[in-house]
Each structure stands twice: as structure tokens, then as C-alpha cells.
Amino acid sequence: MARGSVRSLAGVAIEETDGLRSACLVCDFKPYRCPVIAVAATKPSHKRTGDDGMLVDAALMSLAVLGYLECCAMITVGNDVSELGLRNIPPHSTVTLFAKFLGLSTSVPLAQAV
């Protein structure tokens, strides 16, 4: 990988008898200096069920157990659906969630630790 190695830190999924329904993968990407939500995806037939938010919350709980205080989500600039979905995740007790927009150097807080 050109900018650093990626190591899986937390992964959660919802499986059904016919395959994967939803998944969230959190990686340790050194250039960001904190864990990164690389993927949060749900099958089109199960959109708007709350799966993504539930899985991201479960991943944040796993990160808290591992001792992390911050996590960021990789979002493509203009992907308002992903940004809004992540903004709707309730604040976590110990992990602050940031949006890291691909191609930009800024981060935006999404859910502050309470």
C-alpha cells in the first residue's frame, strides 16, 4: 500500500442464510493516527433498517474496549447520505467519531464522546 499498512481492528456483520446482509470494517490506518471506518454497507434490500448505525455502534464499543478514544470514517466528498447516516449515530460514551473526507485534509466531528 502506498501510504501505509492497513490492519483490521474491529469488524462486525449481520449474516443471513443466503449470505451477508450488512457489514462494518474498522481498520488501523497509520497516516490517520486513529482507527478508520473503511466500510459500512448493507444490501439494498435492507436499506433504512438501521443496520449500518447498529454495526458502527458495535464497532465503536469494540474500539472502546481496546482503549481507543477516537475513530474516523472515510467519506467521499459529496456523499451526503453517508455523512448524514454517521451523524445520526448517538454519541458514544468513550469514542469520538470524526469524518475524514477523501481528498481533503480536514476532519469534522460527527459524534463527541459524552
Average pLDDT for all residues: 76
Largest sheet: 6 strands, mixed
How much beta, percentage-wise?
Answer: 35-45%
Shape by Cα distribution: globular
Q: pLDDT below 50 for ≥5 consecutive residues: which ranges?
A: none
Q: Kindly report the name of the CATH homologous superfamily.
A: Gcn5-related N-acetyltransferase (GNAT)
- What is the N-to-C succession of helices and strands? EEEHEHEE
The helix count comes to: 2
Helical fraction: 10-25%
Question: What is the domain total for the residues?
Answer: 1
The first-to-last residue Cα distance is: 35 Å
Query: Can you tell me the CATH topology?
Result: Aminopeptidase
Helix/strand/pairing class, anyone?
Answer: alpha/beta
Strand tally: 6
CATH architecture: 3-Layer(aba) Sandwich
- Give me the Rg, rounded: 14 Å
Q: Please state how the strands of the largest beta sheet are arranged side by side.
A: 1-2-3-4-5-6
CATH class descriptor name: Alpha Beta
Walk me through what this model shows.
With 114 residues, the chain is an alpha/beta fold. It has one domain (6-111): Gcn5-related N-acetyltransferase (GNAT) (Aminopeptidase, 3-Layer(aba) Sandwich). Helix content is 20%, strand content 44%. The chain has two helices and six strands. It has helices spanning 51-65, 80-87, and strands at 6-16, 19-29, 34-42, 70-76, 96-102, 107-111. A six-stranded mixed sheet has the order 1-2-3-4-5-6, covered by helices on one side. Strand 4 (70-76), helix 2 (80-87) and strand 5 form a beta-alpha-beta unit. The longest helix has 15 residues, at 51-65. The model has no long low-confidence stretch (mean pLDDT 76).
